[in-house]
Amino acid sequence: MATTIVTGRDISFTLATTNYEAQTTAVTLVNAPVISTYQTLDGKAYKHIDDQWTLNIDLLADWGVASSLFEAMWTAFTSAPNTALAFTLVTATGASFAGTAFPVAPTAGGAAPDAQTDSWSMLCATTPVLTIS
Amino acid sequence: MSSILDDVRDPLRTALLGVAASVYASVPEAVIPPACVILYDSPMMESTLIGKAAVKVKLNFIVTAAVAYNSNSGSLDNLEKLIIEILGAIPSGYVVGDVQRPSITSVGASNLLVADISISTYYTQT
Fold first, then answer.
1. Candidates A12, A24, A113; nearest CB to B53
2. Domains of chain A (ranges plus CATH)?
3. ipTM summary value
């Protein structure tokens, strides 16, 4: 099989039906499995009992502009913090992850002289669904 | 359709027109000091954003501040004042970086005292 390379430029990403690509510098969907370990008389035994998925996003802040993504996230967080937002993460053509994640409060401010940035770590409400086509 | 000239370099040049110096949005044949010249830094463009539906890049510039080099102390004072003026005139949306040490550059028959100011911004092709 020939070597295939997919890069961050192959990603497309929408959150609450809004395309976030113009402000997003990195996006990852990460699982933290909970695996219980039992020490038996016959050695170690493992049981996968839970998963916690997290949608991590690094962004450039866009406070103050029209249709601001940061202001939209702030509104979602303050008005409906328990309502998970739908997201779609296409890592490359043919591999699309869909799920829901809870809103977070965007960090305000930054350090001179660099661009204002933020990292959102959004807990997923369910296991994301991978659609392969 | 957007362009880097219309959306990035011209707004920067227009903002710098307020300082007491000649402003060049590209390299001029002859520099009339005091002057600030907008040049590309290296790397010229960086791809830092995800996705390829639109081309989105970080643009790195150098704004070169130049004053006539006649007397060392006077020229340095003029250069410092010009740099402070330029820093104050940079519009919002442009990241202002470091100012490099001054150096003497010969242009034609005249000597200029120059210093480079790093500027960067983000551009999305629409």
1. A12
2. 8-132 (2.40.30)
3. 0.79
